[in-house]
């Protein structure tokens, strides 16, 4: 066993093996008393409910869309929100053109005989399932591209119907022929290189900026910039891929292990309660998302060129094609592991040096510029194996649990700013119950992920007011929402320290477990940190640690998770045994979770759960079990950087990216941020000459985290 592995016993961090009381006095902490809550559920206004200004804006957009169409008989018409009843659709796994879908298409283009439309003229771009209670019947909802040239070649009688088509915002869009869809990231970079070679003589040399004064010249010719990418999660992998394709000398440094070894370390944790502090559910190849649900849902644009480039790259490395079409794409841990192995092999074939089990302990800085990193074997807690590695730039792509990295940056006076995040509890229900709540009679069609309809999930959000003030004052708002909902999943341990306890959810690709779980979390900010007298840029980290330690003590040690029936949480009472069964494999213990958080956070959770019951009748159930504690929903800090160059505003040569830097949340947005940073770093070293936006589209707003 390595020095970093710990067989965690219940008494290892308690002052007394018999005293499991929380070692703090609630009377000492003076929390602001929660006043009457107002909870609003905002719905998107449609039809006559729109404001006059919204209607005017919609009319203007409609006129602009019509004016943009130069030739209706060329290019592609994109048809959205095509509904096909469940009974007329082959099911969730069918992504082709069915009879029911042809009927929906015929209705939109007003073609009289659906069966005469050639399937070859249509391609499914998006497919999702809509079982909302307001609908008369559940349906699959499609977005389809109609290729005009193919349609007219195979069915000339469709000419007049296409000629009469008009764009309708959100329903019908004309896509000109010249508006191309991006390929995978490797193809995109190769296209850039081809264009560069055509527009330049190829005689330019790469400018190497190395604070050490050693420019790594290779004879008299061109030289490669040496770039370190720290972190093997989505942002690090995609940054490394871009830079390697552009010809940089890339070294990828990951403190955890490759997925094969990481899987064994996680097995030792789950089966024998042995925590490897450097290779676990958070650290290792692929990042924290590898042993999670593998969600690929994002709010930065499902059909944007940037997201498509990421998804197509994942498909290239082994992801199923259906992630390009599914409305809620996900991979699952079992699909992510081989995908990451393929990704690694490609990077190595492209010349990337990968160092697993290697922790970055410090930055090497000269004249206010990063010139390298100090690393050590991650199993060596004494750092006796440390060595200095020189680089021209460092892409910092660590995850949100790299607390020692944040502390190192703070000691180096790198600018850090505290960032809002969310904390709460993870609730678990029987999956069959969620299926029945969401689907009613259709619940029998789920069949543990193998049926016609997808395993039921949910997404709920409420806005709670801490004070009796108008909610238009943003300072009084507190959002409470479900996070990382894992249908057919299990609750897992994401602690990286044996004295702290935090959890998350994960699912395999089929989502066939008999449980459904989701975090119910409340946003917290600097004012919450102040209550605990936590100050400075690292206050959010200490806030997380505080409640992770309390949860560990409530559980009694040995990674046992404190739990409480949701009905008892609402009534402030300890749950009696026997408890409902839990998917968490390291053991659970009945505890007063209503005493874990400050009163205002507990009350926000309680009020929100009551409102969730109105949206999902049956959500409050004797079978529903709350688990504590969920704290690592996103990074508690942000590392300020330039919007254009992605370089740190306080330290030259450092490029903070991804979720750990505070610029992403989830696999896809982190990968997109890594991709943009790769282009930015390549451009700074003259490996790429051109506009980044012209190649991969517009970047997500700097500092704006979307999940």
Question: Would you give an account of this structure?
Answer:
There is one protein chain. The protein has 707 residues and is of the alpha+beta class. It contains 17 helices and 26 strands. The strands form seven sheets. The chain has an eight-stranded mixed beta sheet with strand order 2-17-18-21-16-24-22-23. The protein starts with a strand and ends in an 11-residue tail after the last helix.
Concise structural overview:
The chain has 707 residues and is of the alpha+beta class. The chain is globular and about 75 Å long.
Helical segment count: 17
User: How is the biggest beta sheet arranged?
Assistant: 8 strands, mixed
Helix content: 25-40%
Low-confidence stretches: 1-42, 202-221, 468-475, 702-707
Pfam families: FAD-depend_C (PF21688), Pyr_redox (PF00070)
Protein name: FAD/NAD(P)-binding oxidoreductase family protein
Domain Pyridine nucleotide-disulphide oxidoreductase N-terminal: 226-283
Domain FAD-dependent protein C-terminal: 420-633
Write the layout of secondary structure elements.
Blueprint (H helix, E strand, L loop, with lengths): L4 E3 L31 E2 L11 H17 L7 E10 L13 H11 L12 E9 L8 E9 H7 L4 H5 L8 E4 L9 H15 L26 E5 L3 H12 L3 E5 L5 H14 L1 E3 L28 H12 L16 H17 L3 E3 L2 E9 L2 E9 L9 E4 L2 E4 L6 H9 L5 E2 L2 E10 H9 L21 E5 L11 E10 L2 E5 L9 E5 L7 E10 L1 H6 L7 H17 L5 E5 H6 L16 E3 L8 H17 L9 E6 L6 E2 L15 E3 L10 H18 L7 H5 L11
Parallel strand pairs: 7-8, 7-14, 8-10, 14-26, 22-23
Antiparallel strand pairs: 1-9, 2-17, 3-5, 3-6, 4-5, 11-12, 12-13, 15-25, 16-21, 16-24, 17-18, 18-21, 19-20, 22-24
């Amino acid at each position: 066993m390595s020095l970093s592995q710990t067989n965690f016993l219940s008494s290892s961090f308690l002052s007394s093996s018999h005293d499991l009381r929380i070692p703090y006095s609630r009377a000492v902490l003076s929390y602001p008393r929660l006043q009457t809550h107002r909870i609003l559920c905002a719905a998107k206004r449609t039809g006559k409910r729109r404001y006059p200004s919204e209607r005017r804006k919609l009319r203007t957009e409609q006129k602009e869309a019509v004016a943009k169409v130069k030739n209706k008989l060329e290019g592609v018409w994109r048809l959205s929100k095509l509904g096909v009843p469940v009974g007329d659709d082959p099911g969730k796994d069918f992504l082709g053109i069915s009879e029911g879908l042809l009927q929906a298409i015929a209705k939109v283009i007003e073609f009289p005989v659906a069966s005469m439309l050639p399937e070859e003229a249509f391609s499914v771009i998006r497919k999702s399932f809509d079982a909302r209670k307001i609908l008369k019947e559940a349906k699959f909802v499609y977005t389809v591209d109609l290729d005009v040239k193919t349609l007219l070649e195979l069915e000339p009688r469709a000419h007049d119907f296409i000629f009469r088509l008009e764009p309708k915002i959100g329903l019908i869009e004309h896509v000109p022929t010249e508006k191309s869809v991006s390929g995978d990231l490797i193809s995109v970079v190769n296209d850039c290189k081809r264009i560069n070679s055509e527009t330049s003589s190829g005689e330019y040399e790469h400018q190497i900026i190395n604070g050490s004064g050693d420019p790594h010249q290779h004879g008299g010719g061109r030289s490669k910039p040496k770039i370190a990418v720290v972190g093997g999660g989505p942002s690090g992998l995609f940054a490394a891929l871009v830079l390697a394709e552009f010809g940089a000398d890339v070294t990828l440094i990951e403190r955890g292990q490759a997925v094969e070894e990481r899987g064994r370390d996680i097995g030792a944790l789950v089966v024998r309660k042995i925590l490897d502090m450097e290779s676990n559910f958070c650290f290792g190849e692929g990042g924290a998302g590898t042993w999670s649900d593998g969600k690929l849902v994002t709010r930065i644009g499902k059909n944007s060129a940037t997201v498509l480039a990421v998804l197509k790259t994942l498909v290239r490395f082994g992801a199923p094609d259906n992630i390009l079409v599914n409305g809620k794409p996900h991979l699952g841990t079992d699909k992510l592991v081989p995908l990451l192995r393929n990704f690694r092999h490609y990077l190595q074939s492209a010349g990337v040096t990968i160092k697993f089990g290697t922790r970055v302990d410090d930055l090497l800085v000269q004249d206010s510029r990063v010139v390298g990193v100090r690393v050590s074997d991650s199993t060596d807690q004494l750092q006796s194996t440390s060595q200095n590695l020189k680089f021209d730039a460092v892409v910092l792509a660590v995850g949100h649990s790299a607390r020692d990295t944040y502390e190192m940056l703070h000691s180096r006076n790198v600018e850090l700013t505290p960032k809002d995040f969310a904390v709460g509890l993870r609730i678990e229900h029987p999956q069959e119950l969620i299926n029945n709540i969401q689907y009613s009679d259709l619940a029998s069609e789920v069949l543990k992920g193998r049926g016609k309809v997808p395993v039921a999930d949910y997404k709920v959000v409420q806005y709670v007011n801490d004070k009796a003030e108008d909610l238009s004052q943003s300072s009084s708002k507190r959002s409470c929402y479900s996070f990382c909902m894992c249908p057919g999943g299990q609750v897992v341990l994401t602690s990286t320290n044996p004295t702290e306890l935090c959890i998350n959810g994960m699912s395999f690709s089929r989502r066939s477990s008999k449980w459904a779980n989701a975090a119910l979390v409340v946003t917290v900010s600097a004012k919450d940190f102040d209550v605990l007298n936590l100050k400075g840029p690292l206050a959010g980290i200490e806030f997380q640690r505080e409640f992770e330690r309390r949860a560990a003590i409530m559980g009694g040690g040995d990674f046992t998770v404190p739990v409480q029936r949701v009905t008892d949480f609402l009534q402030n009472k300890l749950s009696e045994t026997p408890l409902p069964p839990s998917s968490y494999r390291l053991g659970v213990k009945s505890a007063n979770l209503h005493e874990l958080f400050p009163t205002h956070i507990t009350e926000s959770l309680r009020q929100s759960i009551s409102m969730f019951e109105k949206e999902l009748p049956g959500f409050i159930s004797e079978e529903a079990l709350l688990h504590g504690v969920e704290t690592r929903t996103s990074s508690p800090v942000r590392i300020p950087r330039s919007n254009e160059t992605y370089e740190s505003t306080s330290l030259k040569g450092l490029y903070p990216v991804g979720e750990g830097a505070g610029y992403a949340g989830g696999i896809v947005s982190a990968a997109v941020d890594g991709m943009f940073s790769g282009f930015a770093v390549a451009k700074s070293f003259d490996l790429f000459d051109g506009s980044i936006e012209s190649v991969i589209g517009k970047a997500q707003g700097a500092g704006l985290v979307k999940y």
